[in-house]
Write a structure and sequence with these properties.
By secondary structure, the protein is of the alpha+beta class. 28% of the residues lie in helices and 36% in strands.
């Protein structure tokens, strides 16, 4: 099992026992604000957890969607880095956090750990994130991580009876490595291990 520990969090592979806790996160109304009807369907949570568990067993592994838990083991969200091109050393990053944990930098800590893992462990050169343009908190998080906005795709998503724009942000390995220490979280991640 892949485990990454930060100062306050444990990021680990999903387990079947996470289903009910993960389902509770997805039940939040504000959590679903930028999700399509299909993404927030009740059976989708079961499908996602099964997919995350299966991805962890793939060889070679290219998808790392991890449960975010507190040090005490409470599941509070998920985050991941996915290799989109081995040849071009590209990957995407994403994070979702339960509403009760918004506003206390848990998302920043977890996303920072995933970027570090992507660059240091997976050897990626560029990591990008795509989010709904009205998701200002996600774009602000990307900026805090040192990502740059590359552009906006106009009306490329349709859900909740309207078109949505998406914003693409990215960071390159040299930018990540050269970022001032004040922009980086000290002590994150503490260690990565498999058992």
């Amino acid at each position: 099992m892949l485990t990454i520990k930060t100062d306050r969090l444990v990021l680990r592979d999903f387990q079947a026992s996470d289903l009910s806790d993960y389902g509770r996160l997805w039940a939040g109304v504000r959590f679903q604000r930028f999700c399509s009807e299909r993404e927030s369907a009740p059976d989708k949570v079961d499908e996602l957890v099964k997919m995350f568990i299966a991805q962890a067993l793939e060889q070679p592994r290219t998808q790392y969607q991890l449960a975010i838990t507190t040090q005490a083991g409470c599941l509070i969200g998920s985050c991941g880095v996915r290799i989109t091109s081995l040849e071009d050393q590209q990957g995407s990053v994403g994070i979702e956090l339960g509403e009760a944990y918004w506003g206390n930098d848990h998302a920043l800590e977890a996303a920072h750990a995933m970027l570090e893992f992507g660059f240091s462990n997976l050897g990626l050169h560029r990591i990008f994130a795509e989010t709904i343009s009205k998701n200002h908190a996600a774009i602000a998080l990307a900026r805090k991580l040192g990502m740059r906005e590359e552009g906006e795709l106009r009306e490329n998503r349709w859900f909740k009876a309207q078109w949505w724009n998406t914003t693409l942000c990215s960071i390159l390995k040299p930018e990540w490595e050269e970022a001032p220490s004040s922009n980086r979280l000290e002590g994150t991640p503490r260690r990565t291990r498999r058992h």
